[in-house]
């Protein structure tokens, strides 16, 4: 996290305010570093401080963004007393520390202590850093899930997944192919948290036993395919050659708002026009629209899968055996289910089910957007169900005020991607 000072505004300030609020020092999450925020910060630290947050302050804030702290057991500790001290539950501590013996707590042992709040915030914009902190927190809170990375972005950010389940049927959902569609990232992260929570307590997720899902399916969630672009849109990129390159690219397309209109990766390549399924047709269509060089959107690149993010997605898909994929985008409240004349078995039935539980329209992809997408390539290569879900309504980037409704609309789709196979 970068240093921030009184008078600063932006996403980093929102993260500070979120951490303070979770720690019990109420402050509005408005992205404005005001005297009220400074007062809350001083209350948390227990002393008068200058109105700034630098490395040492962020180190104390990070546990409230990744959702857990650590505790060294001392003589006389019980799980109940530890849970009471940190305002959490014995179940949460047991889940995070499966080898811990409640009747044999050994002094000097360091354990994880999850906080009681929901890890996935519905109030702040998402960036690559927050996404990584949440994935770390999920892994600690729920060690039965797994996380890993399968590639890196242009700027070296990890392209990572959360895996839930040990079953033979693999499915995969991805989000934030497009930079200004970052609101799709917390959709997948929240589903991961809800699913893991119910599995931990042997509960039910949206009408289905979580243990049954875990035994029968392996769900791979890829919450942020385009981390560099997302960070650009949300204003957290440091000054660098990459940021200057993006500004130069944007200046050639003054009709596209900057940075809000940015969909591409940091090189100005639209990652969802990078796959070998009618890539040449996509190039012709986008060239006719004026996108013949790096742009904030709609430039297909020099060749299919020429960008590190699209190549990583291609290789990761080939290395696995996914039976269905969901690609989350915004906006329009519509589900696209076909590529050309390909109609994989059960794909229309599943699409109609998705439409019925979400209220979204089920349509064929418009011609101008109908080639070279990840969903298109998956359908063409494997002849298996693949779907683009266009969530929400309005102009990208959608505000987090829409998140609750988007998640409500899509939670049964996220479940049905497994149960409807």
Describe the protein's architecture and organization.
With 421 residues, this protein is α/β, with parallel strands linked by helices. The strands form 4 sheets. Strands 5-6-10-7-11-14-12-13 form an 8-stranded mixed beta sheet, sandwiched between helices. A two-stranded antiparallel sheet has the order 1-2. A two-stranded antiparallel ribbon has the order 3-4. A hairpin with a 2-residue loop joins strand 8 and strand 9. Helix 8 crosses helix 16. The model has no long low-confidence stretch (mean pLDDT 96).
How are the elements arranged and paired?
Blueprint: E1 4-5, H1 11-22, H2 35-45, E2 52-53, H3 55-61, H4 63-66, E3 68-72, H5 79-86, H6 90-96, E4 110-114, H7 128-141, E5 146-152, E6 158-164, E7 169-175, H8 184-200, E8 204-205, E9 208-209, H9 210-216, E10 217-222, H10 227-233, H11 241-251, H12 279-288, H13 308-319, E11 322-330, E12 334-336, H14 347-358, E13 361-363, H15 374-382, E14 386-391, H16 403-419
Parallel strand pairs: 7-10, 7-11, 11-14, 12-13
Antiparallel strand pairs: 1-2, 3-4, 5-6, 6-10, 8-9, 12-14
Helix pairs in contact: 7-8, 8-16, 14-16
């Amino acid at each position: 996290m970068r240093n921030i000072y009184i008078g600063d505004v932006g996403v980093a300030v929102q993260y500070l305010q979120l951490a303070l609020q979770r720690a019990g020092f109420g402050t509005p999450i408005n992205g404005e570093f005001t005297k009220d925020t400074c007062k809350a910060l001083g209350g948390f630290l227990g002393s008068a401080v200058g109105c700034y947050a630098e490395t040492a302050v962020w180190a104390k804030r990070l546990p409230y963004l990744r959702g857990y702290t650590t505790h060294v057991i001392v003589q006389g500790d019980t799980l109940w007393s530890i849970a009471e001290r940190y305002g959490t539950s014995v179940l949460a501590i047991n889940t995070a520390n499966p080898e811990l013996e409640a009747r044999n707590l050994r002094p000097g042992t360091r354990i994880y202590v999850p906080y009681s709040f929901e890890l996935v915030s519905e109030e702040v914009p998402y960036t690559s850093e927050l996404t990584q902190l949440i994935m770390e927190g999920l892994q600690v809170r729920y060690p039965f899930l797994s996380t890993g990375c399968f590639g890196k972005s242009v700027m070296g950010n990890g392209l990572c997944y959360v895996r839930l389940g040990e079953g033979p049927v693999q499915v995969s959902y991805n989000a934030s192919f497009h930079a200004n569609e970052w609101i799709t990232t917390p959709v997948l992260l929240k589903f991961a948290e809800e699913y893991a929570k119910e599995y931990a307590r042997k509960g039910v997720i949206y009408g289905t036993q979580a243990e049954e899902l875990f035994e029968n399916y392996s769900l791979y969630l890829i919450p942020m395919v385009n981390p560099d672009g997302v960070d650009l849109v949300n204003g957290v990129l440091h000054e660098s050659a990459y940021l200057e390159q993006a500004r130069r690219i944007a200046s050639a397309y003054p009709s596209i708002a900057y940075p809000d209109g940015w969909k591409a990766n940091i090189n100005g390549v639209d990652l969802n026009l990078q796959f070998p399924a009618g890539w040449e047709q996509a190039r012709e269509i986008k060239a006719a629209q004026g996108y013949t060089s790096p742009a904030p959107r709609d430039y297909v690149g020099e060749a299919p899968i020429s960008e590190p993010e699209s190549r990583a997605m291609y290789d990761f898909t080939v290395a696995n055996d996914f039976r269905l994929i969901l690609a989350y985008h915004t906006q329009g409240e519509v589900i696209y289910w076909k590529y050309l004349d390909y109609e994989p078995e059960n794909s229309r039935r599943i699409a109609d089910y998705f439409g019925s539980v979400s209220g979204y329209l089920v349509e064929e992809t418009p011609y101008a957007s109908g080639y070279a997408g990840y969903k298109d390539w998956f359908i063409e290569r494997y002849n298996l169900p693949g779907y683009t879900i266009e969530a929400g309504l309005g102009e990208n980037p959608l505000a987090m005020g829409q998140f609750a409704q988007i998640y409500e609309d899509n939670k049964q789709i996220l479940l049905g991607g497994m149960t409807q196979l």
